[in-house]
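Preliminary data (for renewal application), S-adenosyl-L-homocysteine complex.
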Amino acid sequence: MTSLPLIPVSPDAPAARRAAMPPRHLADLDLPARQALVAELGEPAFRAKQMSTHYFGRLVRDPASMTDLPAATRDRLAGELLPTLLTPVRELACDDGATRKALWRLHDGSLVESVLMGYPDRVTVCISSQAGCGMACPFCATGQAGLTRNLSTAEIVDQAVYLAGVAASGAVAGSPPRLSHVVFMGMGEPLANYSRVVAAIRRLVAPAPEGLGLSQRHITVSTVGLVPAIRRLASEDLSVTLALSLHAPDDELRDELVPVNQRWKVAEVLDTAWDYAARTGRRVSIEYAMIKNVNDQPWRADLLGKLLAGRLTHVNLIPLNPTPGSRWDASPKPVEREFVRRLRAAGVSTTVRDTRGREIDGACGQLAATGDRDTETPQEATA
Ligand code: SAH
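Predicted structure:
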């Protein structure tokens, strides 16, 4: 527990802003801005709505399929409004096709990943908000490589729209065809790319054709605990679910596991989370990776129970997915069960997260975008 890394924690960090952003896309803009742009391009404003209906309403992105637009117009408008942002490099499936991971190449060569998860009653996508991550949590694969850049609003939204199209094609066996949930639990710290992430949320919840029409309650933003940004999120007219990656109930250990804790301590981040819960009426998820002999002791369960008892919260224990070369392992099942028992005894609602996507390195914290690595895979879906 020595030499804690120093990390930039200001929202919209300047280093990330300098990196090359992708071309403008209709998902960067709200509907009035799309209409203004189309008019500027010398086309009738209603074309903006037509393009938006294809993209968000019908999940169609190929101009050749937009037959209600004259051919010349649609090619020109698609060139201006629907540039290719995500090029699929690899798509992997596991859990009998119920989990699919997509690896994308961005316009500047950066690689990011998203995961599509089908359940009997819902379909969830886990999306990335940054290429890499600057938060340096030592147990997280993404955190090891540092931050490359922020994703644009449209790069964030397009992951969900693209995979909504995959779900709509019936690719997720045993699940409804309609994407219903989005979690910002892929690569990156969403609240360090604040303005673009909030704009992306607005696109995801706006009714079609302006957006994807998801319910705010079905969107979860997961954060290491950037206190000013959580406060700002609470003041938006949004009531998305907040997930706080706590991982330790005491500052000594959390300073190491989640280095941003050196700046905003456990007590302060929890107070901010409770304010968020009060403002939005939404239960805050506490994320806690179970790491063998590191944070899984009975006394830490009791301390966590004391901090959370009586609050509008739910604990998600995540069995640690050991990253390559990691000195850490997942807690043994009996230890995990005892941890759950103690939290529940304290009156705290607690579940253990399923480990979807493990075989395809698509589980929590495994996203590392190692595009060139030669992976032996269960089912390679597309090239
Ligand atoms: N930056 C955001 C989103 C990260 S991923 C955040 O930290 O919340 C979502 C969750 O996966 C976080 O709770 C993160 O701490 C957790 N996670 C990261 N690496 C993990 C690993 N190797 N095993 C289990 N969970 C991990």
